[in-house]
Amino acid sequence: MKTLYISDLDGTLFEPTGKLSERTVEILNRLIDGGMNFTFATARTIYSAKSLTKSLHINVPCILNNGACVYDLVHDEYLKNAYIPTDTAKELVRSFHENGIRCFVFKFVDGKLCTCYDHADNELMQAYIAERKGKFEQPFIQCGDVLDCLDGTQIYINYTGNREKLLPVKNRAAELENADYAFYEDNYSKEWYLETFSSEASKANGLRFLREKYGFERIVAFGDNLNDLSMFSQADVKIAVGNAHPDVKKAADIVIGSNAYDGVAEYLLSKSI
């Protein structure tokens, strides 16, 4: 049976430091080189995801930006993008602004995914820009108002901050016919992510695309956070790491070791012996 193994990154495949351990890399590459189909699904963009997983021999396209993009790492190209209709994107941005929040807009410029913003108004936004400019070469565009950046190529609008402040925006996103969202606590800062995207995007839709395009008959998915529940909805076997959110554990078929102890890799190794 043709099986795909797919894992979330932060909090699942990555150790608590936000990186791959040497043990996980050694095990996964041995299994992939032996014929296992393996990839990842993440909220990250291609820039940080590609950099942080470059030591792995990924052999199946990955899911990025919570399903807004499917990317072929072997051929270095986007296979599928789910764009937010401009009218819907304007409603989302206005909702952020009405609640005193300056958001990031991720859109394509000359085929390259760029991050647009007008005001980096908190330490998390500033740190995000500084880290990715310095480490991942992620392109940023500062504009007078992100509303002016919307042109039909936008795939993602997000912010990280206080949960209660973000709730009204989340509720507005839930009302919009052509929008969807992921709302969950960050693994590192303990602030909350609100990530909004097209209703055609999600880890579930990304996984459905991979199943149909490559003929996978069985999908085994690993996750830890609330945005992984979408992926679980399309998986045949749902596996939560030991450090996962209680709701993710409840939805899982199996609970394994935590990300601090190479839970995903050790599980896969045990099943290959």
Structure characterization notes:
By secondary structure, this protein is α/β, with parallel strands linked by helices. 35% of the residues lie in helices and 26% in strands. It contains ten helices and 14 strands. The protein has helices at residues 9-13, 22-33, 46-52, 86-98, 123-136, 163-175, 203-214, 229-232, 246-251, 263-272; strands spanning 3-8, 37-41, 62-64, 69-72, 77-81, 104-109, 112-117, 140-142, 154-161, 179-185, 192-198, 218-223, 237-240, 254-255. The strands form three sheets. The chain has a six-stranded mixed sheet, with helices on both faces. A five-stranded parallel sheet has the order 2-1-12-13-14. The protein has a three-stranded antiparallel sheet with strand order 3-4-5, with helices on one face. α2 (22-33) packs parallel to α10. It is globular, with a radius of gyration of 18 Å. The model has no long low-confidence stretch (mean pLDDT 95).
Give short descriptive properties of this protein:
26% strand, five-stranded parallel beta sheet, 273 residues, alpha/beta, six-stranded mixed beta sheet
- Label the overall shape: globular
- Give the averaged pLDDT, no decimals: 95
Tally the helices.
10
What structural class is derived from the secondary structure elements?
alpha/beta
What does the radius of gyration come to? 18 Å
How far apart are the first and last residues' alpha carbons, in Å? 18 Å
Helix proportion range = 25-40%
**Order of SSEs:** EHHEHEEEHEEHEEHEEHEHEHEH
Q: Tell me what portion of residues adopts beta-strand conformation.
A: 25-35%
- Quaternary state reads single chain
The neighbouring-strand order within the major sheet is: 8-7-6-9-11-10
